[in-house]
Each structure stands twice: as C-alpha cells, then as structure tokens.
User: Fold this.
Amino acid sequence: MDIVKASAVRYKKIQDMIDLLKGKGSSKAIDAILKNSLLAPFKVGKSIFIDGDTIKIGKKEYYYNDIDNVTVNTEGSMALYDRYGKKLCGSFRLNLSCYNIQLFCIWARLHGIPAEVVSGKKERILQFLLLAVAFIAVVLWRILD
Assistant:
C-alpha cells in the first residue's frame, strides 16, 4: 500500500511541476511572491545556477532568451533546448528530484520560456528493462552460488 501512495505522490509532484511551467493554478499569487525572491540568485540541483535573467549550466552561461523551450516528460525528467534545437541539459542535471526545481519552473514561466510535455514511455520502458536485468542477475547469482 505504501508503494501505491508513494507513486501517487510522485505523479502529483510531476503534475504540479507541469502546472507551474504551463502557468496553471494561482499564478497571480505565485508571481507576486516569487518576483521579489527570484531577484536573489539560486541553485537548481548540483550544476545549474540562476542569477536574474541568466542561467549557468556547468561552466556555460546563457541568457533566458537563449532557451527555446523546456520539455518535461510524464515520468519527471526535464530537458532545456536552445534556439537551434541543441540540448543544453537533460534529465541527469534537471529532473523532479532536483533541489529548487519549483523555483526553476516559476523562473522559466516568469521569463516566458515555453514548456512542452512529452511522453515518458521510453523512460518507463528503460526502468522496466533495468528491473528485469537486476532480477535476472539476482536469480543467476542465487543459482550459481
């Protein structure tokens, strides 16, 4: 039963993140509160740093209008793309579990960066594949031991 609750909470957080990026919900209240707090620089995850209108990803720095869009898949991974379609960062640096991900979503919305929701089918297949490989490895380890 706890796994079902955990899964429900996870998908609720993903939906909240998508709503923040898409501008749904009480945007006036969020915008009023966070316009002042976004003036202070903040870190997202381990390697993304946002300071006003600029975002630093690793060692490279971009202005907000250099970002073409943010994609979010239904499993919680995100990616940033520049105006030429090049991926600036992906799911290892930017995902649901990152520190300050909500602030990042609000920052993106306040700067008018479009958000696109994509299917998480590939990620889900990869998760099941890894689970199957782990199961087979345990079974083989038990048999050979």
User: Anything to note?
Assistant: Strands lie at 42-44, 48-51, 54-57, 60-63, 67-73, 78-82, 87-89, 115-118.
